[in-house]
Design brief:
mainly beta, globular, single chain, 3-stranded antiparallel sheet, 1 helix, 5-stranded antiparallel sheet
């Protein structure tokens, strides 16, 4: 059963992308799991204030972003840029695109805890051109205005 109190996870689609919301009494954090694990919203619920900027483009469907550059599909929010940020470059023969290779690809989602006291997830992605596994853990506890 879905909870309507305390910390909770909500999965939904936005423009064809998989989105996960981590939510409690005070904040709601939305993550685009299927595109770079972008954090596209950090909403303070008591004041209805979203602290992240969103582009007027919004979240574009995957069909409109395939083969396009980072800025062509930039919806705003907070992105992971790894293993490089900024201009495209070549490192040891590997061509790395603008803002790295993890910002536009789907990430793997694992739920570690989903209880009335705490929700905790892990997002991960393996790079293709470089030998890395990037992992991000996110936790949201009951009554806390921060996601760690």
């Amino acid at each position: 059963m879905a909870r309507h109190y305390g910390p909770r996870l909500r999965q939904f689609k936005e423009s064809g992308h998989d989105v996960l919301a981590l939510e409690n009494e005070l904040v709601r954090v939305e993550v685009l799991v299927s595109k770079g694990a972008d954090i596209v919203s950090f909403l303070h619920k008591p004041t209805d204030t979203d602290f992240l900027w969103r582009s007027s483009l919004g979240v574009l469907p995957p069909s409109m972003t395939i083969g396009r550059g980072f800025l062509d599909a930039y919806e705003g929010g907070w992105q992971e840029v790894f293993p490089n940020g900024g201009s495209s470059t070549t490192v040891l023969g590997a061509s790395l695109p603008f803002h790295g290779e993890v910002s536009t690809v789907p990430w793997r989602l694992q739920v570690w805890e989903d209880s009335p006291e705490l929700v905790e997830i892990e997002l991960s992605v393996r790079t293709i051109r470089t030998p890395y596994l990037l992992e991000r853990r996110m936790r949201l506890a009951s009554g806390r205005p921060c996601c760690t």
